[in-house]
Every structure is written in C-alpha cells, then in structure tokens.
Sequence to fold (91 residues):
Amino acid sequence: CGTGQLVQLVAPHVEQVYGIDSSVDMLDAARVRLAKYKNVTLLQDDLYHTSLDKESVDAVLMTIILPYLEHPKFAFSEAARIARPNGRLVI
Fold:
C-alpha cells in the first residue's frame, strides 16, 4: 500500500480495506495518513503469501508493484487465492 494514497481514496467507499506492504517505513507513513479511517487495516505482509484468508476479499488492487515483484506469477496467484469467486483483480 505504500504510503496509503490509494487506500485513502478507496476507504470512504467500501466497508473494509486491507493495505499490505513489506516495508515498516511505508506502513508507518500510511498509518499517519489513514488514522481517521476505522475501516482500514494495515498489514506488514508478503504479497506471495499473505495472512488473509482464502476467498476473503471482493477485489485486489495491485498498483505500482510490478517493477518490485521478482515473481509476478506468484503474487497474482496469491491475489486469486484471497479473492472471492467472481472477485476483481486490478493491476
């Protein structure tokens, strides 16, 4: 989720948002930006193996991430795992 810019745009329009980043510094910046949103959960997690349950989200947004992925196929597989049937993946 980086510093949380996209999460900030989405949060007012959805029930729950999970922002995932592996960087503590990015999550710290996101916490400051998103402090007023009660429906945001920030996770320090691995995009190849997130702690989210199978079929637990309606949509997965993966933005500005491709250059940072050593194995995009595995990240996309994980996104498919956590998305509900007929869920959306936006890259």
